């Protein structure tokens, strides 16, 4: 298969396109890396650069040829001066001629401060990292084809916000507030998306945003910002392991909503009483959800006025659903902080459970204490993803730069004020009858837990007028549910079905 390369000039601001020379056997000569002239030269991102290769994959028995472009497009200020280079990887099916009906999915991860690596080589892209069936690292590191990728039905661009991946400010003296905050992040990325869509002739295409974790905050705000500031209207927004989206849940609600997640984790680790443990997970959780909303929230609302008999009864039920002792729950006044749960659940066995995925186990210096020493799942994920993304971009896609690829980059302090992204998403849906929303949650995610994700949907659609365009799916894994082989297939299929459903029949007007 012939591969075309666009040579990158790492220290230039604009790109030069050439056809790569061929070696014997048809392999392209990789672009040369420009080396610093002396030790004082700063390694910079080429603000406007790209390299394109071609490949093919089999998805659901169908051969899907595609081009993948790795590069950087600038963020511009109002005077047309470049403020930053935003790195992206763009996958475009190459046997589709009419882009007006071809969906475009714009993909973000979260942090804030992490790149798009997780969903690119873990979830929806045509190449995924080699891990075991439950998501644990294996050696030798590497990648394989992803037969579940959504590339058969949609093109995908993975975007790394400033100071993640290879993305960097154009100059060191550009104010951090330009990029690092809830609303600043949304504003500049909306402008960048407009530039990308224009360059790649995608204005006619049905468009979707997908975000994971803090990326759900980002894409919820972008849905309205794209409409209001860029006059770009979406067909869908996908929230993978969503944050609270700026929706207020202080007090008793905040203290109660984690309980169903505790129950799911206790069920996984076989800490529930026999009658519950013998049931399937999805048969247990509705009972716990009902108790949370109809008994625990009212009890916490009463605070110190709650009679001792009632307090003991509530604590007994909580112990039944969480695998924790009634005494421990009473000592915490019926409010169990997630970090306390991660430390306490398996304390008697000498393990902690993971924050982002409570299937993972950790070992602390001491069994005593109030929280784990580290996040067991994140250490495991960085172990697997970091070598794979560096190998993929630099060796397989031939993007040549001496820049460090930031798995987590310097974006703090992050301005979290005026986070109204849940309301932004509601407004975008109200103003755009085409816009649909899908939420995907892992039952064992303790950072962005599944029941809080359901609560988001209830509050976004408090009037009940949007429920026909809102949907939720749960999976038997954690924050990155797609790392489990079974969920990788199921979750991608849910995306595929959502994308196709959210595209109206030709000629269908956007109106109520």
Automatic annotation (TrEMBL):
InterPro entries in the cross-refs? AB_hydrolase_fold, Peptidase_S10
The signal peptide annotation in the UniProt record is 1-20
Name a biological process GO annotation.
Answer: proteolysis
Q: Which domain of life is it from?
A: Bacteria
Which Gene Ontology MF annotations are present? serine-type carboxypeptidase activity
Concerning SUPFAM superfamilies, the annotation shows: alpha/beta-Hydrolases
Which key words are in the record?
A: Carboxypeptidase, Glycoprotein, Hydrolase, Protease, Signal
The record's Gene3D superfamilies line, in alphabetical order, gives: alpha/beta hydrolase
Q: Which PANTHER family match?
A: RETINOID-INDUCIBLE SERINE CARBOXYPEPTIDASE, SERINE PROTEASE FAMILY S10 SERINE CARBOXYPEPTIDASE
> Mind telling me what this protein is named?
Carboxypeptidase
Query: Which species is the source of this protein?
Result: Niastella vici
């Amino acid at each position: 298969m012939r591969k075309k390369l666009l040579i990158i000039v790492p220290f230039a601001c604009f790109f030069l396109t050439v056809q790569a020379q061929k070696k014997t056997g048809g392999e392209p000569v990789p672009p040369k890396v420009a080396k610093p002239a002396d030790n004082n030269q700063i390694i910079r991102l080429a603000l406007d650069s790209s390299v394109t290769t071609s490949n093919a994959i089999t998805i659901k028995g169908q051969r899907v040829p595609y081009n993948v472009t790795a590069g950087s497009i600038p963020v511009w200020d109002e005077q047309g001066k470049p403020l930053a280079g935003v790195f992206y990887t763009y996958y475009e099916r190459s046997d589709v001629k009419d882009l007006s009906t071809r969906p475009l999915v714009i993909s973000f991860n979260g942090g804030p401060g992490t790149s798009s690596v997780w969903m690119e080589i873990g979830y929806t892209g045509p190449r995924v990292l080699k891990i075991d069936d439950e998501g644990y690292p294996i050696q030798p590191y590497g990648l394989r084809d992803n037969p579940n990728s959504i590339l058969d039905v949609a093109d995908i661009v993975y975007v790394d916000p400033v100071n993640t991946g290879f993305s960097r400010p154009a100059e060191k003296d550009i104010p951090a507030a330009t990029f690092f905050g809830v609303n600043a992040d949304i504003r500049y990325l909306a402008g960048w998306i407009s530039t990308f869509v224009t360059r790649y002739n995608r204005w006619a295409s049905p468009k979707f945003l997908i975000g994971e974790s803090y990326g759900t905050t980002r894409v919820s705000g972008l849905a309205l910002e794209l409409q209001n500031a860029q006059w770009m209207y979406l067909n869908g927004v996908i929230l993978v392991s969503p944050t609270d989206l700026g929706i207020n849940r202080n007090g008793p609600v905040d203290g109660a909503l984690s309980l169903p997640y505790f129950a799911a984790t206790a069920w996984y680790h076989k800490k529930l009483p026999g009658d519950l443990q013998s049931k399937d997970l999805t048969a247990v959780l509705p009972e716990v959800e009902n108790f949370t909303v109809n008994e625990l929230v009212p009890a916490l609302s009463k605070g110190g006025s709650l009679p001792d008999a009632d307090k003991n009864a509530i604590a007994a039920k909580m112990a039944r659903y969480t695998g924790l002792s009634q005494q421990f729950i009473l000592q915490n006044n019926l409010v169990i902080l997630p970090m306390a749960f991660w430390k306490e659940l398996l304390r008697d066995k000498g393990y902690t459970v993971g924050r982002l995925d409570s299937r993972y186990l950790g070992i602390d210096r001491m069994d005593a204490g109030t929280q784990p020493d580290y996040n067991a799942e994140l250490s495991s994920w960085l172990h697997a993803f970091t070598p794979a993304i560096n190998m993929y971009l630099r060796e397989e896609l031939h993007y040549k730069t001496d820049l460090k690829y930031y798995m987590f980059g310097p974006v703090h302090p992050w301005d979290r004020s005026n986070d109204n992204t849940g309301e932004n998403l509601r407004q975008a849906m109200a103003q755009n009858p085409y816009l649909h929303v899908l939420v995907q949650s892992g039952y064992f995610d303790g950072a962005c837990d599944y029941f809080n994700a359901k609560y988001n949907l209830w509050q976004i659609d408090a009037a009940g007028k949007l429920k026909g365009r809102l949907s939720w799916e749960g999976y038997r894994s954690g924050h990155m549910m797609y790392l489990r082989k079974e969920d990788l297939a199921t979750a991608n299929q849910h995306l595929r079905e959502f994308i196709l459903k959210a595209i109206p029949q030709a000629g269908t007007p956007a109106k109520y």
